[in-house]
Every structure is written in C-alpha cells, then in structure tokens.
Amino acid sequence: MAQKRLMQELQALQKEKWVDITTDEINLFRWKIGLWVVNPDSVWHGAFLKAEMRFPADYPYQPPVFRFLTPSIIHPNVYLDGNLCISILHKPGEDEQSGELASERWNVLHGVESVLRSVLLLMDDPEINSAANVDASVLYRDNRPFYDRMARVVVEETQKGKPAGARMPSMEELAPTPVKPVDDDTDFWNMSDEEEDFGGSDSDENMEDDFDDDFEDEDDK
After folding, report:
1. pTM of the entire structure?
2. 194 in the same domain as 170
C-alpha cells in the first residue's frame, strides 16, 4: 500500500513547478526534494532549499521524516543537523507533554504536498516557543534585521547551488489554470415569439368566459 500511495503522490507533485523531486530508483521510500520559496513577502524568497524525505514501511499510517540538506539554515525550528521540528510530522494522537492536539499532528489524510506546504509556511512563521535552535529563536525575536540578513545570505548560497537550468517559477506560472465556463443553451434564450408567449391556452379563455357567465347568472337571481 505504501508504494502505491507514494507513486500516486509523486506523479501529482511532478506536475508542480514549485517543487523538484528525485527518487532512488531502487528505494522509493527515500526522496530528494528541492523547494522554491516563491512567496515574494518572505525573507527566504528566491531560495532553492534542498531536503530529503524518508518514508516508513507503514506510510501513510505513520509520518515521514524531513531533513534539510541545505547547510547553515538559521531558523528557530531547524536543528543544526537539518532536521525539522514541525507538528504535522509528529506521530498521530494527542501529546499531553507538548500540548499538541491530534488535529495538529500527523494523520492518514496528510501527504507529501501538505507536509511541504507546511514547511514553507513554517519558514515564514516559526514557532519560537518550541524552538529546535534556541539561538535562532532569540535572534528572530530580539534582532530581526540581523536574522533577516543571515537568511538572505543562505538564499544567495542556494541560488548558486541550484540545478543547472533550474529557475524559480513566476507567480503567473503558479496561478491555477482558469476553468472554461460551460456554454449556456443558446436555443433556450433565443426562443421565437410564439415560444415566448407564456399566456393561457384557448381552453383557459373558454373557462374564463364560463366563469363570467356564472357570475352574471348569480346577479340575475
């Protein structure tokens, strides 16, 4: 089941322009990931972040593992070894110790795309109260300009190490393809004069005459 699910997700993600995925031909349970940070308002905008994902044999019942391969990422939720601390990758069920609800953690409805999108969101909105990198958390909280400058250094380095010929997609390229509206039945709106006559039938007129005659008979009494 795990391999079938991974193949389905892989085929869908290979159509996306904001992510680049390569897999081991022998081991489908290990993916190499390249993430473009396309949000123009992000301090990480323009970065091509390299990472790897490893999937358990009982995926999707248990979460994958995500680790950045891009070195020197300064971020409150990224460990020095590149491992990421994020709720969506924590085992299913509530955790009384951390206070995380089951809805915040992994469940079978999640998949690779939801993980990757959550990672990109976390890059811009870190959880500084449960930091994996305390120094980065303090820097983010107390000296944001310096934190931003360090992030930009990483962005520039990732652009140097991006794959040959790779480029960040534009916002226009990422916009969903508009759905062509279904044409209305033109014949319905171009009816003839006769078809537009919603008046009563001849039998209706005869019924009205009979109805008037009844009233006249009542008056004569």
Report:
1. 0.76
2. no
Active site residues: 85
Q: How would residue 25 be classed by pLDDT, with cut points 50, 70 and 90?
A: confident
In a domain, residue 179? The reply is: no
CB neighbours of residue 33 within 10 Å = 22
Amino acid at 206: N
- Give the total number of structural domains in the chain: 2
Contact between residue 48 and residue 35 where contact means Cβ atoms under 8 Å apart: yes
Distances in Å between the alpha carbon of 94 and those of 65, 112, 129? 19, 21, 19
Q: Are residues 207 and 146 in the same domain?
A: no
Q: Do 216 and 142 fall into the same domain?
A: no
Task: Calculate Rg over the CA atoms of the chain.
Answer: 31
**What CATH code is carried by the domain that includes residue 43?**
3.10.110.10
pLDDT exceeds cutoff 70 at 186: no
> Domain containing 142: what range?
2-174
CB 65 within 8 A of CB 82: no
Tens digits of residue pLDDT in 74-132: 999 999 999 999 999 998 877 767 667 888 899 999 999 999 999 999 999 999 988 99
Looking at the chain, list the stretches that DSSP marks H as alpha helix, in order from N- to C-terminal side: 2-13, 112-124, 134-142, 144-160, 171-174, 186-189, 193-196, 202-220
